[in-house]
Amino acid sequence: MLYWLADFADKLSLLNVFRYLTVRTGGAMITAALFVFMCGPWMIDHLRIRQGKGQPIRSDGPASHLATKRGTPTMGGLMILAGVTVATVLWANPSNPYVWIVLGVTLAFGLIGFYDDYLKVTKQTHSGVAGRLRLAVEAVVAILACYAFARLGRAPFATSLTFPFFKELIIDLGGLFVLFGAFIVVGAGNAVNLTDGLDGLAIGPVMIAAGCFGVFSYVVGNAFLTDYLQLHYVAGAGELAILCGAVIGAGLGFLWFNAPPASIFMGDTGSLALGGLIGAVAVATKHEIVLAIVGGLFVLEAISVIVQVVSFRLTGKRVFKMAPLHHHFEQLGWTEPQIVIRFWIISIGLALAGLSTLKLR
Length: 361
Hints:
This protein has 14 helices and two strands; from the N terminus they run H-H-H-H-H-E-E-H-H-H-H-H-H-H-H-H. With 361 residues, it is mainly alpha-helical.
């Protein structure tokens, strides 16, 4: 909404700053962080009272979790989503369709995750919504969003797949683009969900990925920069930098309460929503493959689960001591802070590799 203040810049030149994407992205970041930081204590107390025993802990998980994490409330993703939504509505250009599509995916995935968390808390079971049903609903949301992305762009580029490091390599997927894009969005949401297993583990890499895709959004939405870097231009995608900035701000506010020992878990409410947001931004900015680099940690966590399940079903043997991957390292004797910080370091390295694709072509 503040974007509209720029219309009065002829009367007060200072208001012209609201036209600048960098200023509004910084404003969104600060707004989201302050909102979560200020509302966090109230929300944590409210959720603790309403949930009673808190999030149920996996009986087949690390034994230490049963002692250290029992009774901790979940659904902390509500704090993040509230901060992101408030900051985005306040600072983004309301007439930009990309903002509303990505925000819609984020809130829809958050609602799916919220219902899943609700079932787990009320029934005190680790099983929530049936897996196939949850994936089906996520797929419908993602397909609608990717169809909207395809309609917004210019044919045939709108349905094309671009490749990092190769400026001339573009493949038009046609109608398959919607399905491919939906796979990216759903996959990202569930990969982040699998990563969320230790205090502070998921939110750090999410903020790092959001920072990268904030840069990608700003660049591909700027005709001058895309021409200089020989990148594809996506008109209007620059506004998504504000959403990414809001995620960083809300993530910082949430991390204050999620730092070990966590006062609250983000739950599926947050992890599904944040993963869906990053996946949707990747599709909108035509950086789907780069997402596999920047979000490489999430990919590894998801692959570890797939490999574990397939191996056990085919051979009766497990490749890892426990899946997802972070639990494997717990079983090897790594402490929780060691795993979290080392995984963050890996995420930073992958993010730098992803950012290098802007120039190395």
